[in-house]
Prior knowledge:
5% of the residues lie in helices and 45% in strands. It is mostly beta strands.
Amino acid sequence: MFLPKPPMLFTQMGGPMYQTSKFASLAALLVALSSTTAMADMMFNRIASFPVNENIPSDMDQKSESSSEIISATEDGNMLIYSDSPMGGVGMVDISDPSQPKPTGFLSVNGEPTSVSVVGSYALIGVNTSQSFTAPEGHLSVLNIEAKSIEASCDLGGQPDSIAISPDKSLVAVAIENERDEDLNDGAIPQMPAGNVILFSLSDGKPNCDSMKIVDLTGLADVAGSDPEPEFVDFNALNEIVVTLQENNYIAVIDGSTGEVTSHFSAGSVDLLNVDVDEEGALTFDGKLDAVPREPDAVQWLDNDRFVTANEGDYKGGSRGFTIFSKSGDMLYDSGLDFEYRVATAGHYPEARSGNKGAEPEGLEVGTYNGETFIFVLSERGSLVGVYRDTGAAPEFVQLLPTGLAPEGAVGLPGRNLLAVANEADLIEDGGVRSHITLYQLADQASAYPMIQSIMKDGRPIGWGALSGLTADPTVPGKLYAVNDSFYAMQPNIFTIDATQQPALITAATPVTRNGSSAQLLDLEGIAADGEGGFWLASEGRTDRMIAHGLYHVNADGEIQQQVAFPAELLAVEKRFGSEGIAMDGTTLWVAIQRQWADDAANQVKLVSYDTVSKEWGAVLYPTEPAESGWVGLSEITIFGDNAYIVERDNQIGANAKVKRLYRVALSEMRSAKLGSELPVVTKELVRDFLPDLKATGGYVVDKLEGFAIDVDGVGYAVSDNDGVDDSNGETLFFSTGKDIIGSNPM
């Protein structure tokens, strides 16, 4: 990946500096990125995804909302235990075979579980039972893991958040947040009562309730010092506790044996240059944020002297990265925009959060594997894990890992070379993806993700996402072009892709323009090279949003040269679900209509033709598979040799996905009839079932396989649409089908 100049980093501890001067340059860090694909090495890859709704008891509605949030593991590493706030309990997962996780059961805890941590034979669970913000309540439950029963509980006198166990298993620390009411005075603090940290001694894994020690944190922070709101706690080997006070933008270190605060300091602020700050339907990375409070959420010790924070932000801040501090308060390293830029180049940047906290690093895990310490940074809104190697100075970037939707917690299992990530979002109410736990294994292997990423240009990432159509360059093998859909309504682009690289590289983004300005009212779903350096684009209409159904001819610079509206005969029967792909055969354009229009029979859709010379329209009918649930329609059409290749898919995700296929139709059958007349029905052949490809990633099956192209050498390529990371985990699958497609017998 090319990076000509790192962005400027401003810190509270000095003036502007480049990371090359004090830390490590982004260019140097990106060497690690290229090395992950250039050679087999010890890398993490996802090996399984477990939908936690499989733990919903059989006597409950299986469509109940469930979630995996904070996660821990038994000491043998064979079982995961996670908190499930919507269900009001904890779930257990058998990972004795990590590639085949199995449900082990769910246990109600009679309240809202906020955290869980395993010690010996027990899991300690923070349970919130508050009836109001002004009268917080909660307790620490003790779960006997083998018996799957609650043996005891200790009253906490407040609302718990994070739990941590000391390495010697002698102490447990609980962050009592007593969180604020975000609807009161716009969430401004102070809001009483104040939070604190509670300590208990442990005996054989069980807390002694009578040993409770309350650590007072009032009067420390500059921001609302009377109302500390502890968020996250962690122990080092000296039984020292680090605690983040997120809303207060503050950090404290506590002696676990005495409960004394030994150091405390502000988390500080940063100035960010070349950051996306507006939710305008475009990825711009040209804004500036001054004096942004870090407001750290998760914190993890790296050793007995240093710890790392994930600077999610909550109240007024969120610096979009992570920071390493000494326990005396020295800021040793700040990632600036490094993490967010990596999220963006992987296509995971959440544009809908630009005005808030961007990629929003929330969770953290630190683990030592084979003598090397790794930092795992969880992007809640980007649904990615950034893996960095601790060097004792500036961390070294290693790789990115795809997750489920909204990663919240993680636990490392170094003894088994495993990492587990809990992803909290459950979209069952909208028919979407369920909450998942994703599992990764460290092995001698190349990094499998991302499959496609963009380069840096002028010190900023080429932003991309929602790839909705694909075409091949007519003369250059492995050179492809893609378009994005209307999620980026203010930034329609044609992306140039070098598919010969691993991962594939987006090397340029050419704006689609009208009269020199970014073209509006487009929903680009298809692209076809015209053979003369330009392209034909298909826009899916939405008449209720004033987006016309139509075709657009653009030159090599993306400027619209010609606009072709759908004819009256088509518009008379139009529906929302229109053009989903476009291909060119000589002077004739073929457009795949996604779903049935008003005059189509069940399980039939139109392939519409337009002769660019005679201006005549026509169509044939294509037979779709019947849908088990939802709908089945078309996503792409490409022409190679004597055949048209058509992507047919359902709109289902995960285990419900049944139809993700590539069919071919002989061009000799595509003899279009006049619109409004009786249309001929073509015959299709199954060429490839994409479900094995979509399952091979260790994740759940994505719903939108949207693009397919065959290059000049006959090599096929497919790409999925990540919906602009909106109610999506942002994952874009890009893979080659090889040359088998054009010479294959039907599968």
